[in-house]
Amino acid sequence: MGNTAVKKTKGSGFFSNLVRQQMFIPVAALVILAVFNLIADPSFFKITLGYSSSGAPVLSGYLITILDYGSELAILAIGMTLVTAASGGQDISVGATVAIAGSVILRVLCGSNSRPETLRTSVLVAFLVACLVSMLFGAFNGVLVAHFKIQPMVATLILYTAGRSIAAWINNNELPLISDPSFGYYGGFLPGIPIPTPFFIAAACVIIIALVLKFTNLGLYTQAVGINEKSSRLNGINPTFIKFLSFVILGLCVAVVGLIKVSRLSTINYSVIAKDIEMDAILAVALGGNSLSGGKFNMAASILGAYVIQFLTTTLYKFDVQSDALPAYKAVVVILLVVLSAPVVREKLAGLGKKFRAKEVA
Amino acid sequence: MANKTSTAQKGIGYKIKNMTDTNMLLTITIVIFFLMYIGAIVFQGEGFLRPQTFLSMLNANGALIITSCGMSLVMITGGIDISVGGVVALVSMCSAVYLDYHNGSILGAVLISLGIGLAFGIVQGYLVAYLDIQPFIVSLAGMFFARGMTTIVNTNPFNVQNEAFVALKDTRVIVPGLGSVNKLGRYVDAYVEIGVVVALLVVILMFIMLRWTKLGRSFYAVGGNQQSALMLGINVRRTKFLSHLICSLLAGIGGFVYFLHVGSGSASHAMGMEMNAIASSIIGGTMLTGGVGNIIGTLFGVLSLSTIQNIVSSAGLDQAWWTGITIAAMLCLFLVIQSVVMARKKKAQSLNK
């Protein structure tokens, strides 16, 4: 579109135009990781068709793992992007709320009997109850942030600490185990389909959010509130409600992830389920090139970012990094990302680039 | 302040209305602490009446007091640091490995602790102050880095056997005159651990620094309003940098005190300590928005938290999750109080205009 004009005025070539694209960061990270894996061990890309214990065909391989677990992250990234854009902060309680949602699903399905032969109700009912509960918790965060104007990260710190305790309390600290194989469909494989179900769930979520962003003003309003709260109010938007809404939507995303998580295991472990997932979700938003202090956002970049993060995690696992040590490597990536995207550093880099170009011309 | 008689005539209501934010929040904290402690004595029986119960609270929370002081400082400057729990875990693991596997000396372990604290402080402070990155993101990464590094240093938790260290760990400072007679009729001296002495020293030093030194006042100025602090000629970036540096350094010291209390290294040590430190500071009257806070309040914040924990456990609800829920509820309450106080102040200001 306006590319030619930009080219003429800036005098820069195709490459710097490419760099300015928001999608550039996640795509570049993906390419770097892929090339790294290709050189280190090409078997990373091998996908084999196997059979599950019940005889259904399933695909397996590192790429399928990425598709599988990255989908959880992508669903969370949708909500996290909205929260980040609207409130200029992040929700660090998502891991704990996933535990709550999962606990609620198990409680509804099992009742007080922790080893049920049959499910008490359909999974759909349990899921809807979990949606309601985690939206309530989202609303709690939303009220603290939007109405009481507490910094999002500190407000969500409350649930971050209390959440797993609440999850344990919902099930009286018991670990219900569901033996019904149909419960495993949501986090595993549907019979006859060799691609993991979470991918389809994530795809459905992406389509829904894409439609919402296309046909409603949610995206525009969210960005307006994030960029300048005062002027958005003067333009007739209710910033308090928009912020509140973003947290409730995140609550919904969390419930979906909770269903996938408990379905994978058919049970729950309160202190381990979705551990450190908040870090990954925030990282996905940051890797998507979105500003962590709010304002404009690019949903597609965040979702791609989520899969890239999972790519990184799987790569680290492949090189025998312990799961407890993973955060250390990811933390380094976060720091690198935020340092590179800091305005001060960007200006300096731009200055360096100019000098370099000036030399070239001379 | 201006003249005593008029204040006295106008009564307590006037006094409360004209209190500074710091004093008002501090008063609320201290009143709540004493109410809670008296409530505990009345409802939970005589356990709370013995001085040793109170001193044991100090013993268990020496490290928390130290890290909370650092946290308050950062929050007064308008930032936040959630890496302290991770730093404490990393410090205790590194010290444990150094003492046991490398036969190190205690002095060396202390130096390692201080070094780790300083390293975290310099990196985080630089990123926050000079590159303008949000303190929460920086310290979130710091927290995950420290936790991850702890497992990389050593995976399995273990108790330290080093003789010099065990001797130091068991050293007790006897507090004269507070002893009590136990069930067997023998007189038992009341004692505190060395960590508590360090913690109280830190509290006193921080209090003096914040109240009476130029540097201390500049922390409040930067937290209150960066623009006007800049116009006053304060080096805002350096002040922010120093606040993070001191906070992480205190986390390093706190880490060693924690290590001295538990005597082992483990990746799951000090889980959620950052939360407790933030909660203590907020309950102690430090405002999240910066510019308001008091170290004495922080001390009372820690004491309030541990009183709650004691009440929860002596009421028979000793599941770990009840503690989490009560602390979170209390934090929530105080955050809302702060928010309401701020909103009322803003309203009053706009009315005065």
From TrEMBL, chain A:
Key words, A-Z: Cell membrane, Membrane, Transmembrane, Transmembrane helix
InterPro entries: ABC_transp_permease
Membrane topology term: Multi-pass membrane protein
Compartments where found: Cell membrane
UniProt xrefs under Pfam families: BPD_transp_2
Segments traversing the membrane: 23-40, 61-86, 92-110, 122-144, 183-213, 241-260, 281-308, 328-345
Protein origin, superkingdom: Bacteria
Annotated protein name in UniProt: ABC transporter permease
TrEMBL record, chain B:
Pfam families documented for this protein: BPD_transp_2
Positions in coiled-coil regions: none
Taxonomic path: Bacteria, Bacillati, Bacillota, Clostridia, Lachnospirales
Source domain of life: Bacteria
Keywords tagged on the record: Cell membrane, Membrane, Transmembrane, Transmembrane helix
Topology class, membrane: Multi-pass membrane protein
Transmembrane segments: 24-43, 55-76, 82-99, 106-127, 190-210, 241-261, 282-308, 320-343
Name of protein: Sugar ABC transporter permease YjfF
Organism for this UniProt entry: Roseburia lenta
Primary location: membrane
Subcellular location: Cell membrane
